Amino acid sequence: MVERSFELPDLGEGIAEGELVAWAVAPGDHVEQDQVIAEVETDKALVEVPSPYDGTVIELHAEEGEMVPVDSVIATFEIDASEADAAATDETDATSETGSAEAESAELETVEATEGGAEAAEAGGGAPGGRVFAAPSTRSLARDLDVDIGTVEGTGAGGRVTESDVRRAAASASGTTSADADSAAPVDESEPVVVTSEGGTTRERTLAMPATRRLARERDVDINDVPASEEREGEAFVTPADVEAYAESGGSAAERANKATTSGTSAGASAVGPSATAESDSSTGGERVPYRGIRRTIGEQMAESKFTAPHVTHHDEFDASELVDLRAELAAIADEDDVNLTYLPFVVKAVTSALKEVPYLNASLDEEAGEIVLHDEYNIGIAVATDDGLLVPVIKHADRKGLKELAREIDDLATRARERSLPREAMRGGTFTITNIGVIGGEYSSPIINYPEAGILAMGPIKKRPWVVEDEVVARKTMTISMSVDHRLVDGAEAAQFTNHVQSLLAEPARLVLE
């Protein structure tokens, strides 16, 4: 018998870690190859991790609820020596078969390290397997600063290279400090900022990504004191590089407190006071729930969308009486084929037609290239509320499908989303999103765009409301809609043109047959 360690396998493109939600085995259990031993949550998918061996579980190396980096050991097995030899042979064969394919693939989040990067990885600074994990914005910064990202030691989760890592590498190469490198970044001076003697500001509100706020807490920095190098929606926007530069220049709360104690001045005491008060207020009573997994992913994506794409929202209402009648008639027919025909397939058909009329709503902005990408596919995301948060599975090529096919696919995707059995691929590639707030009683909303898409449409409820028909006020069944668009790509006139097209088709739904 021999012991074998099992590392958390690759969970998907660009994913560096996952939350170990539950173990399906315990030490002493016998397992078979491909038997599920754990559930790991990453982004918006719940992944079942199978055992690579037939054998006995000796030890589990991670606790439920723990964030586990990819390629870290999560379990130890005891297996037969013959099984170990077979497994080693299989791994060698698999490596030789997939090596050439991996070399040819250009993954979104990973690149092969250069020779220098490989040496850095061997020294303990790189990601396993010679790959470098980094966001597109980090790669862009590396190119701007003429830094070989393969040589940069990543300090993020799972060895991910951050913007701060790149800036430090650039500063090291030029013989300057990180603070010097960051000070060269352009600052928007259109909004005056009062700087204190310690380098802080008098801001009461600061915009920042959740990861940046977490970094500020780790560095013991009050984020409202950090000089911002960017501005969003007229307010200071602090980046991780800003926090690092401020902390390295002696701007931590601990150092400010030490200076205040040494000087004994009232000004120094007042600088420390608010920080201490905020700390005590944040720890008084109440339940603390870990901010991680799907909730954290949703929060970070919504923050990125809101602070990247300037939103403008358009509201409208139309007479849906004919839609109600037609759906009732067709639903009875569809029911014979066990198809649940809701209003959503009608809306999907109307939306795909409108996207062809207003192509800039079926688009995304490639900021790095400075180009607007007009997509030639119509892949509609459908927002699904689950117990764990909002998931958005995607209907691929929605414009090519009829009402019954759309109804079946929507029902299947929604069911699997609620069961958390959707693969990551089912939630990728969307070009526009629809959300139905009417089912929970919402009338209007200001939905947040599923970035980097250009728009999102929210369906309100169908209700009897007073409506003017031929100068007479009558009761009609009307539907409200709300649509948010990325104002960088779409103006208000185009948003109105889009909703008018959608409404005209839904008000006379027989026309959808011709679409």
UniProtKB/TrEMBL annotation:
GO cellular component term of the entry, any: cytoplasm
Residue ranges of every copy of the Peripheral subunit-binding (PSBD) domain listed in the record: 133-170, 207-247
Region annotation (Disordered) ranges: 84-134, 151-203, 247-289
Protein name as annotated: Branched-chain alpha-keto acid dehydrogenase subunit E2
Positions of the Lipoyl-binding domain: 3-78
Bias (Low complexity) ranges: 113-122, 169-185, 247-278
Highest taxon in the source lineage: Archaea
Cofactor(s), by name: (R)-lipoate
Biased composition (Acidic residues): 84-94
GO molecular function, one term: lipoic acid binding
CDD domains attached to this UniProt entry: lipoyl_domain
Keyword annotations from UniProtKB, A to Z: Acyltransferase, Lipoyl, Transferase
Family: Belongs to the 2-oxoacid dehydrogenase family.
Organism, scientific name: Halarchaeum nitratireducens
